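One-letter codes give the sequence; the fold follows as tokens. Both lines appear below.
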Amino acid sequence: MKKILFVTSEAYPLIKTGGLADVSGSLPIALDALGHDVRIVMPAYADVLASLGDLPSKRINQAGGEVEIFETELPGTSVPVWLVSHQGAFDRSGNPYLAENGKSWPDNAERFSLLCRVSVEIAMNRMGFGWKPEIVHCNDWQTGLIPALLEDEGDRPATVYTIHNLAYQGLFPKELFQKLGLPQHFWSYNALEFWDQLCFLKGGLVYADRINTVSPNYAVEIQGKEFGCGMDGLLKERKDRLSGIINGIDEEAWNPATDPLIPHAFELGNMAGKDANKAALQKYFKLAPDKNVAVIAMVGRTVQQKGIDLVIEILPKLMDLTVQLAILGSGEKKYEQTLKHWNSLYPERIALKLGYDEPLAHLIEAGSDLFLMPSRFEPCGLNQMYSQRYGTVPIVRCVGGLADTVEDANPANLEQGKASGIVFRESNAEALLQAVTRALELFNAKTEWKKIQKTGMKKDFSWKQSAIKYLDLYALAEQDRQSLV
């Protein structure tokens, strides 16, 4: 049995802004089910505390004042969660990273530095819990200082650092380095300095015993200039410690046969509920009711990374085809406004809901025919896996985890029964439109279409498979740690 401290800035269902929360709310459960002692540390956001009610807590005096740690469990499980609270740090409602104006909270460096320091104290068994992990698993820039700070500790646990999205690096002005009281030897291009800025991400990239990303393909891509976000040189240097493990999905939450959030259950042997969900989705969005029209969906952030600009660019030509479009998400205001305009032009063919709605996301997966993910980069992606499980054929760009999880419906894959989606390579509107056109041709070829649906629905995207690979990674991290002793 391994003792694992899992440090994250968000975990579903406590709080979610993206895929990190899904991973943080699923991987610890899978590790626990395999018999390991895993405990989560995350911030005590005001909304999280409000949702949980009265909790036992421990107060500890730190150099920066009193820290309170609330003790709870991940809802519906026995996985312990420690919520870190400090006056003025996390006791605010709303987005954990962004203020109402859409800009980063001005004190994010201080807030997540606090999370890192407290996590180090827990990892070194100095918080009075009587528990010391063998592995500290850190996630994204918000936890990047932990491997660096642990490097200065004797008899420290092994560290694993997971990059969920290399584009978010935790960059702050140089003066914050001094303000945070970090050891001076960390101000070096070989440590936390990046172009005269403090970079939290580099703490993980430089000091972790093992680094991994959330798909094998993305682990390769980030060693090149196109996807390396300025860190490609460092990642090449550490390529012997870098690997990729595809995320799993919660197969209980995302199971069309038992999903309580969809009106009609269905499964591989009985797909009648799929058509009924399509009708329910069309009714919800006031789209013209027609089972022979392909419903194409998109759920996610309306930002350039996700290729929403490419979707907007092909809208005039999409409206010449026999399709309906359903979009759920939010992001950049300019894209939101453009989508609202198109929604007003074609209310019976283009549906839009801004924001995020978990039940609606499930209905969209269950009721759509096709799912768009034309991402410019995609470390892993989850919706393409949800889609395949729900018999909704994904249209994806051949990048990151999309390339690892979707097999193109080319003649060879169709012949061999491997095809599970439509894959295109170039990041431009013409390539996307060609992919959609090809998808519609297959949609109208019902025999081949059903084969593609069933291939996707048979796939094993369970967290158990991924958790076993993480255990192998933890073992490698411990070996690396021992080699330094």
About this structure: The first strand starts at residue 3 and ends at 7. DSSP finds 19 helices and 18 strands in the chain.
